[in-house]
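Subject — a protein and its fold
Encoding — discrete vocabulary of local shapes:
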Amino acid sequence: MARYTGPKTKIARRFGEPIFGPDKILAKRNFPPGQHGVNRRKKSSEYGIQLNEKQKAKYTYGVLERQFRNLFEKASATKGITGEVLLQLLETRLDNVVYRLGIAPTRAAARQLVSHCHIVVDGEVVNIPSYSIKPGQVVGVRERSKSLEVIENSLTGFNHSKYAWLEWDGSSLSGKFLHLPERADIPENIKEQLIVELYSK
């Protein structure tokens, strides 16, 4: 399965949430896409609800099924609440950290910046979006990439104080990953317990 590159509004309307960021069309059409979207009944079965939550998490973080499954298995083997650990693992992905630091306007844009070698970790170029950031590591913009318009536009007016687990240094365009975020600090509207129940069947 390839990474989803289709219409993002269509996916956002399916879940009824702006999972890819602010969406003007979703604000006007907050119902599933399609000819019968307005009157279509949502799945109400337990399995359907759990599957829907997993799909929402995958689309939100831009992770494929195999990657997501591997992360869940890693979370299951880690000490702590499995659902919370799963979200923490998703938050430590390099593309997500770049997005949280405001270097990119979306996770998709962050993934592209990482893949095109514009991002450094502890001073070394890393081009793997799924690279896991550890507490204490510093994520920044490569020196020759600091003048990129997409980065400058994204950083303009960005509130760097809204994520307590990240510390931003505007002079060097870099941020330090201080610690793993608590569940209450992760803003995504994901019911992780439903995902745990789905994989536990």
In short: The two ends are 23 Å apart (CA to CA).
